[in-house]
């Protein structure tokens, strides 16, 4: 009686292992890409929140950059950017404005703020409250057009972010 003493894997075993490896690799890659997008959205939101809090702090400090007394500070929202400004209204031609562009996959939607044109969040000097606050106009949404996720910022009259 002759026994086959060759050791190794059959072609079927190799194919099954290869298919399992490809399937697991595809699953892991998909999840990592999703996690990266989620981290990018969180980073963009964190930067925005920090800029909003900074503008409110500037208004509460009671001095403007020229040292001429208390001044309003605010944020103007466009679809693909936001602009930090000083003054009681947004002036797009002011050279002191600082515009921050969003990554191409992000955009602002559902902008409903109490400013004159509903795209501005303005803080009152010294107390830092939201100028012209209204319960019905107090939010802005950051939308990820690729991952289809969104984060909503809502403000109370004190300028405190109540959701994100």
3D structure, described in words:
The chain has 164 residues and is α+β, with helices and mostly antiparallel strands. It has a single domain, classed as minor pseudopilin epsh fold. The protein is 31% helix and 26% strand. The protein has one helix and eight strands, in the order αββββββββ. The protein has one helix at residues 11-61; strands spanning 73-77, 81-86, 98-101, 106-112, 120-123, 139-144, 149-155, 161-163. The chain has a four-stranded antiparallel beta sheet, with helices on one face. Strands 4-6-7-8 form a four-stranded antiparallel beta sheet, with helices on one face. The radius of gyration is 26 Å and the shape is rod-shaped. The model has no long low-confidence stretch (mean pLDDT 85).
- β-sheet strand percentage: 25-35%
Annotation, overall tally of beta strands? 8
Q: Kindly state the mean pLDDT as a whole number? A: 85
Q: Would you tell me which CATH topology applies?
A: minor pseudopilin epsh fold
Largest sheet: 4 strands, antiparallel
Strand order in space, largest sheet? 3-2-1-5
Q: Per the principal axes of the C-alpha atoms, what is the gross shape?
A: rod-shaped
Q: Please state the structural category.
A: alpha+beta
Q: Briefly, what CATH class?
A: Alpha Beta
Specify the CATH architecture: 3-Layer(bab) Sandwich
Distance between the termini: 76 Å
